[in-house]
Specification:
- The structure holds 2 protein chains of 2 kinds.
- Chain A is mostly helical.
- The longest helix of chain B has 22 residues.
- The chains are: A mainly alpha, B alpha/beta.
């Protein structure tokens, strides 16, 4: 009879139980596990941690670890649910911008780890016949992430880098953010609402023509495309199969 | 000189100073990212040193199916960086797809033994090379454990053809926690199976339990056990690990130097 699975199921249930374990050995495991998971969150969310302070962060991380299972043997993948967890975490209810800052930090974390890719080959793009160019699909670099919030999350994030005192340049207003990793380090920069909508349409798999509808003024598309291409936002394109 | 476990606070300094070391060892999972800074660091380390990939998350002993995605990512690392050693832990970390991301103890039963051996064989087949499996520290013994740990470790190596990464600090910690003789443990391991030896620091809790914290210098009784291990198994790649409250690089290098001095003394005495 197989007992290994049931033994492991019971062990994990006790490890992540609401109640602190009575067994001193199990208590060591619980402490280590919560420290490992909390350490991974602290590494991925340094700005959230600075905003709420170490003690508040540790308690939030502990409750997150007990509520939301880690699903990978690679701790670098732990934390995808933290922003959503914070949105429902009542002790943080007064900090409306906090989940948005957490989404931005997770986007940076993912961008930092994403696969490398070639930049868009303009020569190949130029060889696409004019009458087919609007139907192509521009492909976003794997490290590109798009974040938007009703709150000035980018200004808050920037103000809480290690060389800043925490005072954001803007205290209100929405932010549209492009997260990208042009070389080895991921960064975040503001883009305008039209650029954000354009990139979001491309990310959904929309053709160039469809994405371009984000720009009310067709004259604005070319310069915006050139600017984003120069930043390495695109890694290639696909032509639709001939009808 | 012996090797060190390489962690992020020392990346830059190690490459700048390039101290003499037999090898460096990293946690495989720390380099699972598809791109960005991590793979680039590992390329630099590999260019300067022999490399050991030490896995902490494969969950070899889990009753779940083997995580094929995890294994594929490990395989990609092995292919790209051609390490001299690849190791995993003789433990489990996950069940029902929930990960504890920690090294949890197996019940030492015939069922566990058969399960772990099949998994090690599967991993070795996939990677196309043999691996080392490491004994872990433990803080409790699971009901039904009937096989002494050293017999379990030796039998895994015998049946699956893998090597043993013998962590003498873990032997010492578990020996104190579960009242067995750590020297009896060494006697139970076949010399030819030992491919690497780990050294690290532990701490004693107020209740007397020893905890494998990797947060201090190697304890004196562990150095003595290391000396006995080298005398029994011969010189082996030795590695000093430090994972919490990571000190200056020089502190780690001094610990590695001490491991070398002990191995040299054993060699002189044997001559």
């Amino acid at each position: 009879m197989s007992t290994l699975g049931p033994t492991q199921r019971e062990f994990l249930a006790a490890l992540f139980a609401r109640a602190e374990p009575r067994d001193p050995g199990l208590a060591v495991y619980r402490r280590t596990v919560l420290a490992n998971l909390g350490g991974a969150l602290a590494g991925a969310f340094p700005v959230v941690r600075r905003l709420v302070g170490d003690a508040f962060f540790s308690e939030a991380a502990r409750r997150h670890a007990l509520d939301i299972p880690s699903t990978s043997g690679d701790l670098g993948e732990y934390g995808a649910e933290f922003a959503r967890f914070l949105a429902g975490y009542s002790p943080a209810g007064g900090l409306e911008y906090l989940p948005g800052v957490a989404r931005l930090e997770w986007a940076l974390h993912e961008s930092h780890r994403a696969a490398p890719a070639q930049r868009l080959d303009f020569g190949a793009l130029a060889r696409v016949p004019d009458n087919r160019r609007t139907a192509i699909r521009l492909l976003l670099h794997p490290a590109v992430r798009l974040v938007r919030s009703r709150h000035p999350v980018l200004a808050i994030w920037q103000a809480n880098q290690s060389d800043r005192d925490g005072t954001p340049d803007r205290a209100a207003g929405a932010d549209h953010v492009l997260v990208h990793r042009p070389d080895l380090a991921a960064g975040a920069q503001p883009i305008d609402e039209r650029e954000w909508a354009f990139l979001a349409a491309l990310r959904r798999g929309g053709a160039l023509e469809e994405a371009a509808a984000a720009f009310p003024d067709p004259e604005a598309i070319g310069p915006a495309l050139a600017r984003m291409a120069a930043m390495g936002v695109f890694c290639g394109f696909e032509e639709p199969a001939p009808a | 000189m012996a090797g060190i476990g390489l962690r992020a606070p020392h990346y830059e300094e190690l490459l700048r100073r390039a101290p003499a070391l037999d090898f460096v060892e990293v946690h495989s999972e720390n380099f699972f990212a598809a791109g960005g800074a991590a793979p680039s660091w590992l390329e630099s380390f590999r260019a300067a040193y022999s490399l050991s990939l030490h896995g902490v998350g494969l969950s070899l002993g889990s009753a779940d199916p083997l995580d094929e995605r995890h294994l594929a990512r490990l395989h990609a690392l092995v292919r790209r960086f051609e390490p001299m050693l690849v190791s995993e832990h003789l433990c489990w970390s996950s069940y029902g797809r929930r990960h504890a991301n920690d090294l949890l103890p197996l019940p030492y039963t015939e069922e566990s033994l058969a399960h772990v051996c099949a998994r090690v064989e599967r991993v070795q087949d996939h990677l196309g090379r043999s691996i080392l499996v490491e004994n872990v520290s433990s803080y409790l013994q699971l009901p039904g454990s009937a096989i002494p740990e050293w017999e379990f470790v030796a039998e895994v190596a015998r049946r699956s053809g893998c090597g043993v990464l013998l962590d003498v600090n873990n032997i010492w910690v578990s020996a104190q926690n579960h009242a067995f003789d750590p020297y009896r443990y060494l006697d139970g391991i076949e010399a030819g199976s030992v491919g690497e030896i780990h050294l690290a620091g532990h701490e004693a809790q107020p209740d007397g339990l020893l905890v494998d914290t990797h947060g201090s210098v190697v304890a004196e009784p562990v150095w003595a056990l290391y000396e006995a291990a080298v005398a029994r198994f011969g010189p082996r790649p030795a590695l000093v690990e430090w994972d919490t409250d990571i000190p200056a690089l020089d502190v780690l290098l001094a610990q590695a130097r001490r491991a070398d001095l002990i191995a040299a003394r054993v060699a002189r005495q044997a001559a």
